[in-house]
Write a structure and sequence with these properties.
Shape of chain A: elongated
Strand content of chain A: 5-15%
Largest interface: A-B, 40 and 40 residues
CATH topology of the largest domain in chain A: Cytochrome Bc1 Complex, Chain D, domain 2
CATH class of the largest domain in chain A: Mainly Alpha
Oligomer: heterodimer
CATH architecture of the largest domain in chain A: Orthogonal Bundle
Structural class of chain A: mainly alpha
Distance between the termini of chain B: 85 Å
Number of helices of chain B: 16
Order of helices and strands of chain A: HEEEEHHHHHHEHHHHEHH
Strand content of chain B: 15-25%
Largest sheet of chain B: 5 strands, antiparallel
Distance between the termini of chain A: 57 Å
Structural class of chain B: alpha+beta
Radius of gyration of chain B: 33 Å
Number of strands of chain A: 6
Helix content of chain B: 40-55%
Largest sheet of chain A: 2 strands, antiparallel
Radius of gyration of chain A: 37 Å
Number of strands of chain B: 18
CATH superfamily of the largest domain in chain A: Cytochrome c-like domain
Shape of chain B: elongated
Number of domains of chain A: 3
Chain lengths: 309, 485
């Protein structure tokens, strides 16, 4: 992609650069001699400029090595402009670009990290989770890539699942976690706007009753029918959810969007859209492996500590 | 480009002259005396320090090491982190002030005695003198035309081999301040240097060889910015190398037995030795010039001559312009040293130096940064507590393990828990490293109003380990706790 809207600017810059260098060389050549006036007593006359009462300007020659340095920098400049991009839109003979340099250094860094990762790649996720060094690396990766939504302690927040408890929307086995990280998840709860306000309130009370929260028993009894007709397809007849499609268990105390009656009614009326982005293109398989182990380890502290023994 | 200089006296004539002057090689003559001795002492002191320092060990590591890769500067017991850049600033300010002070008192003292350019030139000239002989032997040797004799080849090759060896050692030492020098020595012997280490070693060696062997006074005259602005800080009470014109003029040679006063001559015997010894090739008798680096070689040389001809010493001496004008002796001129600007420099330096030392002594090696999670305002825990999440960056700048305890203050019954829900009581942070700790801070839902509350974290650490002073370190960091509306 060109840096400018108009290719004329490239030509303009190239021209200014070349004229600049040529002018420098001409200046060096044209100034090679100077007129020096010797006064009758043999001393050299100054230019007649005086500052601070007695500071006079002479016209002393420059050292010759300075001239060579000047020439050398002109030669360096020309060589640079031939080899590297700099002269307008001309890309240089070496094919250098900052993007290329960045990619090369990323590749180099990955090469350096490879032996460190290789050790863990051969290990089972559950064993990696127990390795203190891997845990440290996993935490750093987590803080970089995951903590923005799930929180630094992986405790989640409204709309973003807590990863440190034993409750999983899509399953908590290492393979499930890996799939979630690689492919992402779209947790869609459709809006049930066609239900009347009364029906929504009834089913919300029914759900709260299932979870063991305070609920209006009359409404809850009426809500059972509404639940069976509308919600059971995904959440199951017993409300225990379905990890295959990410339908949450409604009978526990974990509420992704809030467990108050008002929040549940809002969920029913407007639906919810949970979105975990896919990281296949962003993270290397090695990083995914370490992250999987770290996340699995968060809710399996004891297990991973035992497997270390 | 010819250097035609025609200066026939009696006529004012305009001459075309090349503006790019070929350097005329200067062959300074060896000199001995008080100032030469001082220079040798300072050369030895600075170079023993420079070459020796990287080889000293401290706390099982190199005593002075500027580890750029892990961004830690080790200076004996001190480990400085990038956060300590203020110390570098203060050192630079102190150096600048010291330069102002010395220059105001006695001109370009730094240039003449301690500047690396002078020091290495001095060492290189010493080698040159040992190999090629003194001034006249060197002039004769360089005068020898092509093709060179075997003797000239031998002498020149010997000189350059010695120069290059010294330059390489200098470059090696320089890199040894940034990479552990013992590892570096091994790498050099096994030829397994990294590209950057090799580059800096050779570049520094090349610069030493070029600047001390060839460029010499050209560096002082044309490259050095200090040289130019130091001259500006000289005033009429500054002690500078001065030729006593009234005593010396009219100059002229004379026989030792003749009474020069009767011949109408001054004390200057016009032997031109002061010019021969000058490392920048000037004639001090023309007055103070910007090329003068204040080395005092001409003073030593002239004193020797004065001794020989039986005149009083000090025809060329350190004295001030005021002393020359008002015909004061040095004792009286010294009264003017403590003038307001000198006293101001001294007092600013004293204040800064005290602040610098005090801050180094009181420096807390425990540092903490608190970052509140921005992704979520707060969480409700089972309807009873409000939870905020923070990341604590705990930095241990000491060389001991720190046992860290974190508590929060500012709200009733406020609790700090780590990711596993445990109190942070005995967290160990390894020496010279940092630790990122996500913490949950919990407050009872009934105990707080909605809104933002200022809280602060109190972090206490105890140093344990071989070099531990057993000191308790403490930090208090402010943050805020949010209860959503």
């Amino acid at each position: 992609m060109s840096d400018f809207f108009n290719s004329g600017w490239g030509v303009y810059i190239a021209l200014v650069t070349i004229v600049g260098i040529v002018w420098c060389l001409w200046l060096l050549f044209s100034q090679r001699k100077t007129q020096v006036t010797y006064k009758p007593d043999g001393s050299v006359a100054d230019t007649g400029h005086v500052w601070d009462d007695d500071l006079r300007e002479l016209n002393n020659p420059l050292p010759r090595w300075w001239m060579w340095m000047f020439l050398l920098s002109c030669v360096f400049g020309i060589a640079y402009l031939v080899l590297y991009p700099g002269l307008g839109n001309y890309q240089g003979t070496l094919g250098y670009s900052t993007t290329g340099a960045h990619e090369a250094s990323v590749q180099q860094a990955n090469q350096q990290l490879k032996p460190i990762y290789a050790k863990y790649m051969e290990m089972d996720v559950k064993l990696v989770a127990a390795d203190p060094k891997a845990k440290e690396m996993g935490q750093r990766l987590f803080l970089n890539y995951c903590a923005q939504c799930h929180g630094s302690d992986a405790g989640g927040s409204k709309g973003f699942p807590n990863l440190s408890d034993r409750d999983w929307l899509y399953g908590g086995e290492p393979a499930d976690i890996r799939t979630t990280i690689l492919q992402g998840r779209a947790g869609v709860m459709p809006a049930f706007a066609h239900l009347s306000g009364v029906e929504q309130s009834d089913v919300a009370n029914y759900v709260r009753n299932m979870a063991g929260l305070a609920a209006d028993q009359l409404k809850s009894a009426r809500g059972a029918e509404v639940f069976k007709a509308n919600c059971a397809a995904c959440h199951g007849g017993d409300g225990k959810g379905n990890p295959a499609m990410g339908a949450p268990n409604l009978t526990d105390k974990v509420w992704l969007y809030g467990g108050s009656e008002a929040s549940i009614i809002e969920t029913i009326a407007k639906g919810r859209n949970g979105m975990m982005p896919a990281h296949q293109e962003i993270l290397t398989p090695e990083k995914v492996h370490l992250l999987t182990a770290y996340v699995w380890g968060l809710s399996n502290q004891k297990v991973s500590a035992d497997s270390q023994k | 480009m010819s250097d035609t200089i025609s200066n026939e006296p009696g006529s004012s004539n305009v001459v075309e002259q090349a503006l790019y002057e070929v350097r005329r090689k200067i062959y300074p003559r060896a000199v001995s005396g008080v100032f030469a001795k001082w220079r040798v002492i300072l050369v030895l002191a600075t170079q023993i320090l420079y070459y020796g320092l990287p080889w000293i060990s401290w706390n099982d590591r190199q005593a002075v090491l500027f580890d750029l890769v892990s961004r830690k500067f080790y200076i004996f017991g001190l480990v400085l982190w990038p956060q300590d850049i203020i110390y570098l600033t203060i050192i630079l300010i102190l150096s600048a002030l010291a330069l102002f002070l010395f220059t105001a008192v006695a001109g370009r003292l730094f240039c003449g005695y301690a500047c690396p350019q002078t020091v290495y030139t001095e060492i290189f000239m010493w080698i040159e003198r040992k190999v090629e002989g003194d001034r006249f032997a060197r002039i004769r040797l360089d005068g020898e035309e092509w093709p060179w004799s075997f003797k000239k080849w031998r002498i020149k090759l010997t000189k350059h081999s010695l120069w290059i060896l010294l330059a390489l050692w200098t470059g090696f030492t320089f890199v040894g301040y940034f990479t552990p020098i013992q590892v570096l020595a091994k790498e050099v012997l096994e030829m397994t240097l990294g590209p950057w280490q090799a580059f800096w070693l050779l570049f520094y060696a090349f610069a030493t060889w070029g600047n001390a062997g060839f460029m010499r006074e050209q560096v002082c005259k044309y490259m050095c910015p200090y040289a130019r602005f130091q001259s500006v800080m000289v005033d009429k009470d500054t002690f500078v190398v001065t030729y006593d014109k009234t005593r010396g003029e009219p100059r002229g040679s004379r026989s030792k037995s003749a009474d020069h006063k009767q011949m109408g001559l001054g004390d200057c015997v016009d032997c031109s030795i002061c010019v021969q010894v000058c490392p920048t090739g000037i004639d001090i008798r023309d007055g103070l010039q910007y090329m003068c680096i204040g080395c005092g070689a001409c003073i030593d040389a002239c004193n020797q001559v004065m001794d020989k001809v039986g005149y009083e010493r000090g025809l060329v001496r350190y004295t001030s312009e005021r002393a020359m004008l008002e015909k004061m002796d040095n004792k009286k001129a010294r009264h003017y040293i403590f003038r307001p600007r000198v006293l101001i420099y001294i007092s600013i330096m004293t204040v800064l130096m005290t602040a610098f030392v005090a801050s180094l002594i009181l420096r807390n090696p425990l540092r903490v940064d608190v970052m509140r999670d921005r992704g979520a305002l707060a969480r409700e825990i089972e309807g009873t507590k409000i939870e905020n999440i923070y990341r604590l960056q705990i930095m241990n700048a000491s060389e001991n393990v720190m046992q860290v305890k974190v508590v929060a203050k500012g709200l009733p019954d406020i609790q700090v828990l780590d990711s596993q829900g445990q109190l942070v009581n005995q967290l160990s942070v390894s020496p010279a490293s940092n630790l990122l700790l996500p913490v949950k801070v919990r407050v009872g839902i009934e105990d707080v109003q909605k809104g933002t509350h200022p809280i602060h974290f109190e972090i206490r650490a105890e140093e344990v380990g071989a070099h531990a002073s057993g000191a308790m370190r403490e930090r208090v960091e402010k943050s805020s706790f949010i209860v959503p509306r």
